[in-house]
Design brief:
- This protein has 3 domains: 1-41, no CATH class; 50-99, no CATH class; 103-189, no CATH class.
- The chain contains 8 helices and 4 strands.
- The chain has helices at 7-20, 22-29, 50-61, 69-96, 103-116, 159-163, 168-177, 191-197; strands at residues 120-123, 128-132, 145-149, 154-155.
- The protein has a 4-stranded antiparallel sheet.
């Protein structure tokens, strides 16, 4: 339910939970949806759920959790500085290769493009399309038909709004209309912007 990108898919998994346990559903319903779901967060999470960020920091602290507090702080600073340096060099290498978008972004787009080729598109006007899936989306839901509105950056599946990346339905609509789907990829996914994150350096701390 938390990862569901749209309200209909959220309701689908909510009904599945009801089948398993009404008590659990009643407990979940007491938590404001905007605090834990992608479907109701207004696109603020960009696909990152709370546990993702926690686990990312967990890997930084691996093997140093048992250190005394002073040593723990020093080790955290050192490991973070090293990680920043490594990630920065990796990003610069990708930029030098001529790749425009980050590796995770490129993987998502490639997957969406592969799915887009199986969709059937009906064009309603210059910006609005109906996109029908003809193959199982392998996402725990039945194949369906979706409305795409390019100008509003909207797709009924919810992924376009939640991830700020064109989903397979948007890409299929762009293919059908001979439009460039890349204009709908947010600039934050460009490698040049990723490199800017790592421009800041950690000072060498002595002692």
């Amino acid at each position: 339910m938390g990862y569901a990108p749209s309200e209909p898919s959220f309701q689908y998994w909510r009904n599945e939970l009801r089948k398993e346990s009404v008590e659990a559903l009643n407990w979940v319903d007491k938590i404001p949806k905007e605090k834990w779901t992608q479907a109701y967060d207004g696109g603020r999470r960009w696909g990152h759920m709370t546990s993702n960020l926690v686990e990312a920091m967990n890997s930084v602290y691996k093997d140093i959790r048992s250190l005394p507090i002073t040593a723990l702080v020093k080790a955290t600073y050192s490991k973070t500085a090293t990680l920043f340096g490594t990630r920065g060099m990796d990003a610069m290498a990708v930029l030098a290769s001529g790749q425009v978008y980050s590796v995770p972004c490129q993987k998502r787009i490639t997957d969406a493009m592969n799915k887009a080729h199986s969709h059937v598109v009906t064009r309603h006007d210059r910006q609005r399309f109906a996109v029908e899936e003809t193959e199982d989306p392998r996402e725990g839901r039945p194949k369906d038909k979706f409305k795409v509105h390019l100008e509003e950056k909207w797709c009924d599946c919810g992924k376009f709004q939640a991830l700020h990346l064109p989903c397979s339905h948007v890409i299929a609509a762009c293919f059908h209309a001979h439009l460039d789907y890349q204009v709908y990829i947010d600039d934050v996914f460009k490698v040049a912007n990723v490199c800017r994150v790592y421009e800041h350096t950690f000072e060498v701390v002595q002692g």
